[in-house]
Design goal:
The complex is a heterodimer of chains A (about 70) and B (about 140). Chain A is built from two helices and no strands. Chain A is mostly helical. In chain A, α1 crosses α2. The longest helix of chain A is centred in the first third of the chain and has 17 residues. The radius of gyration of chain A is 16 Å and the shape is globular. The termini of chain A are far apart. Chain B has about 140 residues and is mainly beta. The chains are: A mainly alpha (about 70), B mainly beta (about 140). Chains A and B meet through α1 and α2 of A and α1, β2, β3, β4 and β5 of B. Chain A: This is TP53-regulated inhibitor of apoptosis 1. Chain A: Keywords: Disulfide bond. Chain A: InterPro entries: MDM35_apoptosis.
């Protein structure tokens, strides 16, 4: 899958590979020993956040799980 | 004016498998309209939950059925945000997905909760809820 920043796709794939392994083999098994992917994540994020700004994608200002707060059920 | 939809279903896979697949779901044969996928935020909380934000861009500017009502010059990309919380202790995953483009035209928010199926531990139960709203009068009536 491609990144929204064309130059970031390779960094994304490297990070995804690291994350998927850590997620399945450590995180889901309750292993809290720390994340081996912080460095690749940092590089990937630097690239993708820059691309998001350049493309003017309106991601700012929404809190995590934000839109669903106080949602009526009907 | 809006619409609320809710349903509960299940997947014949374990909760672990569903979560692992969740991060590997793109590309897939049903997602040809998804152009890009990025994690734009991720953290493990002090209570050991994984919180993430994923940004997707899709080709369609709007749901296909709506396209013929829209001016041709509208933005050609649709942006979607998906927030998720995964709790490996409680074995639950909650996701919230919504569009950040064309939101005034039509806003669709979907919330899904994944947990171990209470009747069959090797399956996963999904509760889905969606809120659809539009500020366009004619469209609101169509949604009702």
């Amino acid at each position: 899958m491609n990144s929204v920043g064309e130059a970031c796709t390779e960094l994304k794939r490297e990070y995804d590979q690291c994350f998927n392994r850590w997620f399945a083999e450590h995180f889901l098994k309750g292993d809290r020993s720390g994340d081996p992917c912080t460095e690749t994540f940092r590089k990937y994020q630097r690239c993708v956040q820059k691309a998001i700004k350049e493309k003017d994608i309106p991601i700012d200002g929404v809190e995590f799980m934000g839109p669903n707060k106080d949602k009526p059920d009907s | 004016m809006g619409k609320y939809i809710c349903c509960t279903g299940f997947l014949k896979s374990t909760w672990d498998q569903v979560c692992i697949a969740f991060w590997q779901r793109y590309p897939n044969p049903y997602s040809n309209h998804v152009l890009t996928e990025d994690i734009i935020f991720r953290e493990v909380t002090p209570s050991n939950c994984l919180i993430s934000r994923r940004l997707l861009t899709k080709t369609s500017r709007a749901p296909r059925w709506m396209e013929r009502y829209l001016p041709k010059h509208m933005a050609s990309s649709a942006y979607i945000i998906e927030d998720s919380i995964i709790d490996p202790q409680k074995r639950t995953m909650t996701t919230l997905t919504w569009n950040i483009s064309h939101a005034r035209l039509m806003s669709v928010e979907e919330r899904c909760q994944y947990q171990i199926n209470p009747e069959k531990g090797s399956w996963t139960e999904i509760k889905r809820e969606a809120w659809i709203s539009s500020s366009l009068y004619g469209l609101s009536r169509a949604i009702q």
